[in-house]
What we know:
There is one protein chain. This protein has 315 residues and is α+β, with helices and mostly antiparallel strands. It has a single domain (8-302), classed as 2,3-Dihydroxybiphenyl 1,2-Dioxygenase, domain 1. It has helices at 18-28, 91-100, 163-172, 225-237, 296-302; strands at 8-15, 32-39, 42-51, 60-65, 78-86, 106-110, 113-119, 125-130, 152-159, 177-181, 185-189, 197-201, 214-222, 246-247, 251-257, 263-271. Strands 2-3-4-1-13-16-15-14 form an 8-stranded mixed β-sheet. β14 and β15 (251-257) form a beta hairpin. It starts with 7 loop residues before the first strand and ends in a 13-residue tail after the last helix. The model has no long low-confidence stretch (mean pLDDT 97).
Amino acid sequence: MSLQTAGIHHITAFVRNPQATTDFYGGILGLRLVKKTINFDAPEVYHLYFGDQKGSPGTIMTFFPWEQSRKGRIGGGQVGVTSYVVPEGTLDYWRERLQAFGLETEEAERFGERYLQLADPDGLRVELVAREEGPSSEWSFGGVPANKAIKGFGGAILLSTAPERTGDLLEKVMGLTKIAQDADYTRYRSYGELGNVIDLNVSPAAPGIGGSGTVHHIAWRAKDDEEHERWRSYVAGSGYQPTPVVDRQYFNAIYFREAGDILFEIATDPPGFLRDEELDHLGEKLMLPEWYEPHRAEIEQLLTPFEVREVEEMN
């Protein structure tokens, strides 16, 4: 039996301040806050989800904002850079927009593609790449018109402490195809239209340190619950140790640590974020799983208030 993931489902990171994070990803990058909930394992911490108009798989960046968290260090065992894809011909627009908000950007090139790189308020590394493929976003916010808006993930740079073994996993277990290599990176591709290009370091990376400004895990797509169960058996049969299936309300999840120390998750596409809110009202209310609902008042007192708002340009 072999399986293939369509690509990235979501990426989850540690940050400190919910307002600063929302201003950057919502107000500046123009993504939609599609769900405001809590870390089910630490209800005093938000879990915020940003994506396209409905939080489609392949567009979702999620955050645990914890103001007391230590500062992390990006390194081996992590996603080093999260790539977003924008429509072709819009990189100049994005460069001018980001600079208008006082953000420093750098140009990079990998495998013949141009990237616009920057850091978020906590130091998380993100980049924009223009490609024709992938459905256009229907969401417009903060002055970003829909025809220039981020479509979703372009992919990610993975930093592995054992890149040969991580590459073997990407090809032989996750079903990606190796398509190119240079002195620094090996490029892999999945069959999906978003979150489909993975660049893996060639030389082993020194271990990173978890904390604010680092990615906690990368999640890969499973079509449905039936395929998800097959993924769990397949991963276990390939020599890894997946967790039992965990209900995350908006998807089911399994987790396992791969040989290069990166935490992988496999998440189901359904049921999605419309299961408990209407499309026009996504992200407006703090949504709690039923077992936390009796404690809503206490939980809300522990959480720092924030709002989705337009951000003023600096120049």
